[in-house]
Amino acid sequence: xSQPKTIYMDINATTRVAPEVLETMLPYFSxxxxxxxxxxxxxxxxxGAVKKARQQIADLLGAHPxxxxxxxxxxxxxxxxxxxxxxTSTEKRHIVTTRVEHPAVKNLCENLDRLTGHKxxxxxxxxxxxxxxxxxRYEDALxxxxxxxxxxxANNETGVIFPIDEMARIAKNxxxxxxxxxxxxxxxxxxxxxETPVDFLSLSGHKLHAPKGIGVLYVRKRTPYMPFLLGxxxxxxxxxxxxxxxxxxxxxxxxxxxxxxxxxxxxxxRVLRDKLENGLIKAIPNTILNGHKIDRLPNTxxxxxxxxxxxxxxxxxxxxxxxxxSGSACTSGSLxxxxxxxxxxxxxxxxxxxxxxxxxxxxxEDEVDFILEKLPPIIANLREMSPFWEDRHKIGxxxxxxxxxxxx
Length: 408
Ligand code: PLP
Prior knowledge:
By secondary structure, the chain is α/β, with parallel strands linked by helices. It has helices at residues 19-25, 41-61, 74-88, 103-110, 112-116, 135-141, 164-173, 234-237, 245-283, 310-319, 339-343, 348-351, 365-385, 387-390, and strands at residues 7-8, 68-71, 94-98, 121-125, 146-150, 177-181, 200-204, 215-219, 287-289, 300-305, 322-323, 325-326, 354-358. The strands form 3 sheets. The chain has a 7-stranded mixed beta sheet, with helices on both faces. It is globular. The two termini are 45 Å apart. Mean pLDDT is 93; it is low at 397-408. It binds pyridoxal-5'-phosphate. Pyridoxal-5'-phosphate binds next to helix 3.
């Protein structure tokens, strides 16, 4: 059987490198292989390209180039920001974060005591059923010994956007450092750090059509800072290790393209996403949208098909070349639904059947139509085999239907 054409709707997992980005990078693997830290002019011309990339990234963020530190990925940027805050304010042991953070922040916060040997208090704020945050609860969680707030800008699973501008202002007024994991936001949302007072921001190249293995930590001028990787004097002593030159140059180009195209692309992607989402909800009974309908990335939809397993859906989609993600973590062996959906209180029978489609301008209306044709029968077949579907009118207790509103 010939391999079906790939329909890639897993952009929040990773993106293809844009052709213009690849083209910009290529010379730095071959003829322009100098070290940007070298004193000779061969290295220096690479240094010039690094400088340009730093400026392109700063421009997209509304930042100053000196505030851009290159790292290896979003995860490193997150760790650097949080460890830096804890090391520059050792008397403060409290961290405020949310229950829906990416593991890059969540697992770090949950393992801080083991990693640092200090007694840290971590407040993981709950979220509402639509994935949004209660600002009053956030304000109440801040304490005199809070060293840092670390809150994501946009959620990778649901696309829900947090009010980072307001949250950063609240922290600032209390003299608390504010970090945002903006890995899913940069390139998809307009960001202007000249106006939004965050101290640290993380981004990752492979989420915006630059390569994997390159990240940035933005550190606002005059923010107390300690490097995570000690070593050479690269990045003005703020991150040791020879820079991933070709990739950071690609990231610079990707940021330039995002700045030019974001508005137009968001409109196009939103139309495709909405067509897919509305089509699925209309065609498949017991389909639930996870996350706020409006305050969300234009490219992301997370839907639950009640009473079926997300992993099984993904396998069937894969047979048609359709790439998406599931909200359950069966692949990690835990069989637990995603921590994000659990935090939102999505019922067990829905959380297990959640699928995330994350789109880009590389997707087409034909692809959306193809999914709308293939997915409804997949769900119907899986439900035929599902004992939960059979018992759905009993689930919810009391012998009456707790779910589908059938009145049984
Ligand atoms: N933060 C968020 C919100 C993400 O979605 C991801 C990756 O999926 C990361 C952090 C980690 O980024 P990286 O893969 O560059 O380490």
